[in-house]
Design a protein that fits this description.
This protein has 265 residues and is of the alpha/beta class. The protein has a single domain (2-18, 26-146, 154-264), classed as Ribonuclease Z/Hydroxyacylglutathione hydrolase-like (Metallo-beta-lactamase, Chain A), CATH 3.60.15.10. The protein contains 7 helices and 14 strands. The protein has a 7-stranded mixed sheet. Strands 7-8-9-10-11-12-13 form a 7-stranded mixed sheet. A hairpin with a 2-residue loop joins β8 (154-163) and β9. The protein is globular, with a radius of gyration of 18 Å. It holds the Pfam family Lactamase_B_2.
Amino acid sequence: MSMKVTILGCGGSAGVPMVGGQDGYGAWGRCDPTEPKNKRSRASIFLEMENGENILVDTGPDIRAQLLSNGITAFKSIFYTHAHADHIAGLDEVRAVNRIIKAPIAAYGRAVVLEEVKTRFDYIFQPMTGTNFFRAAVEAVSIAPNQDFEMAGYNFTAFQQGHGRGQSTGLRYGSFAYSTDVVELDAHALAALAGIETWVVDCFQHEPHCAHAWLERVLEWKQLLNPRRIILTHMGPDMDWQTLCNTLPAGVEPAWDGMTITVPE
């Protein structure tokens, strides 16, 4: 029994490359533009569960291209980490999935997060009748912070994370955890992460940042939690893929868009 995790996107809020550059075709920062794994869309993952009830984590602005690139056509659950635009702005695109599954999709998240998503996409949360789906249809399922909950027939753990002036929600299933958009972990979060083996975690850049973890902070967490495998995500243009591969310590590696991980359930 195992769960397949696909890294749909591992970039920061502006992606890599960012809009701009001297020729107008992108600002790559320190990232080598000839390395395909440096091309990063906005952060999201997809969980393929043994029972077939797959889960999308966040609906960023690149979600349509991410689903097409990875051959994903159906899921019945979305989990929201927080309501920043780079994690919710593509919600309209799930209409195509509604039409395939012929049903609304359940959206899980903290009540305050779902309320903000509803504010921006009120029409998507309106009751839907029939299966025509002229618009996307989503049903909100509120979860309590720092508690276990059931999603898609499985038990998950949600834990709160410091994200600058706000908070995000981390997600754990078995020995796997996902912590995008995090800069602080309190005692509750560290307890929720105890014993993990595979951790996909925010690491935006090398230098300290007010809202996102940086490399030194992630390595400090590594010492505390001692996971077998750390995979860096939400990386900005400071984080060249090959340089990271050459310099990171054992057990730490950069993600890339389309990367897959199989973890025991």
